[in-house]
Design brief:
Blueprint lengths: L1 H16 L1 H7 L3 H24 L10 H9 L4 H20 L7 H15 L3 H6 L1 H12 L4 H30 L1
Length: 174
């Protein structure tokens, strides 16, 4: 994200303040505009991706702390919070009208929720991995249109940034 912001800032600064210098020096204005547009579109995709990130990653802290907590499946509080998230995910997926996920994944998650609901906290911890696996398998099918928009924005932004770079490398070599 920092690189996209830097490229956006530098290209907008140059485009706004140095147009006469750019013309005289022979710098390709089209390439500079592509860097500006590419960094803007890539940054938009990156910000949209941040909004779509799972709840575990939207909390304060470092990523490795979240991954460690996700791997610690024997934690009763984690299982309790994961059950709430899993219930919401299953209900949201069942209600979806377009691009429905595989029904078997919804049933698998509902079965894991039902299994854990009747058990005590220390027994839930032993079966937490099954719930976590079913939850992640169904999450792979969550927000498909949003994911496509994010992927398209990042791809278009990346290609707009790549073209001037490759063009300048070939101009320098040949």
């Amino acid at each position: 994200m920092a690189r996209a912001v830097t490229a956006l800032s530098m290209s907008s600064l140059v485009l706004a303040n140095l147009p006469a210098f750019i013309q005289r020096s022979g710098i390709d204005v089209f390439s500079l505009r592509l860097v500006f547009a590419g960094s803007l579109v890539f940054l938009i995709g990156y910000v949209l991706f941040a909004f779509c990130a799972p709840a575990e990653f939207n909390q304060a802290g470092e990523v490795h702390d979240h991954v460690k907590r996700m791997n610690d499946l024997a934690d009763a509080e984690f299982i309790k919070s994961r059950l709430g998230l899993a219930r919401g995910l299953a209900a949201r997926m069942k209600a979806r009208k377009e691009m429905k996920p595989p029904v078997a994944l919804i049933h698998l998650l509902e079965e894991k929720i039902a299994e854990l609901r009747g058990k005590e906290a220390d027994l839930q911890a032993n079966d937490g991995a099954g719930l976590f696996h079913a939850d992640l398998a169904l999450r792979d099918h969550d927000a498909p249109i949003y994911r496509l928009v994010v992927a398209a924005a990042m791809l278009i932004g990346g290609l707009c940034l790549l073209y001037p770079t490759v063009r300048n490398v070939f101009r320098a070599i040949f």
